[in-house]
Amino acid sequence: MAKSTNKTKPTKLSPRAFLRSVDHPKRRADGLALLPFFNQVTSLKPKMWGSSMIGYGRYHYKYDSGREGEFFLTGFSPRKTALTIYVMPGYRDMSENLARLGKHKIGKSCLYINKLDDIDLDVLEEIVLEGLTYMRANYQTWDS
């Protein structure tokens, strides 16, 4: 099967400008707080992916079906319904950390929180770092 193209790609948009344009005041404030948090935790520069996701680093994936592409290693988005934190390997084997995190919901590779005040940022740091470690050990990755 030929390499397919991921619809969500890095853009030239400014992550800070995007966050300043978020309508919801709490999502905007929390997004602006997450920007330096992720910068410090990952030591990577943020890039906009698509129109609403801020990603850090990138990795190459290839599914058994032959579909392959690139996506960011970790990141976040201030969605209308919740702050979405992306940890690409999902939250496998992170039940202990998730139990200590605070109020949240999870998806396959997403962590949903209503507001930063609901969670322990030290625990979120542990989760993000574990995700990065997993991705770097199991995929071809880049810091840009």
Brief characterization of the structure:
With 144 residues, the protein is an alpha+beta fold.
Largest sheet: 6 strands, antiparallel
Order of helices and strands: HHEEEEEEHEEHE
Mean pLDDT: 92
Total domain count: 1
Question: Helix fraction?
Answer: 25-40%
CATH domain fold name:
Aspartate Aminotransferase, domain 1
CATH architecture: Alpha-Beta Complex
The first-level CATH class is given as Alpha Beta
Silhouette:
globular
Low-confidence region ranges:
none
Give structural notes.
This protein is α+β, with helices and mostly antiparallel strands. It has one domain (15-142): Aspartate Aminotransferase, domain 1 (Alpha-Beta Complex), CATH 3.90.1150. Helices cover 34% and strands 25% of the residues. It contains four helices and nine strands. It has helices at residues 15-20, 25-42, 95-101, 121-138; strands at 46-49, 53-56, 58-62, 68-71, 74-78, 83-87, 105-106, 110-113, 140-142. The protein has a six-stranded antiparallel beta sheet with strand order 1-2-5-6-8-7. Strand 3 (58-62) and strand 4 form a beta hairpin. The longest helix has 18 residues, at 25-42. The two termini are 27 Å apart. The model has no long low-confidence stretch (mean pLDDT 92).
Secondary structure topology:
Blueprint lengths: L14 H6 L4 H18 L3 E4 L3 E4 L1 E5 L5 E4 L2 E5 L4 E5 L7 H7 L3 E2 L3 E4 L7 H18 L1 E3 L2
Antiparallel strand pairs: 1-2, 2-5, 3-4, 3-9, 5-6, 6-8, 7-8
Helix pairs in contact: 2-4, 3-4
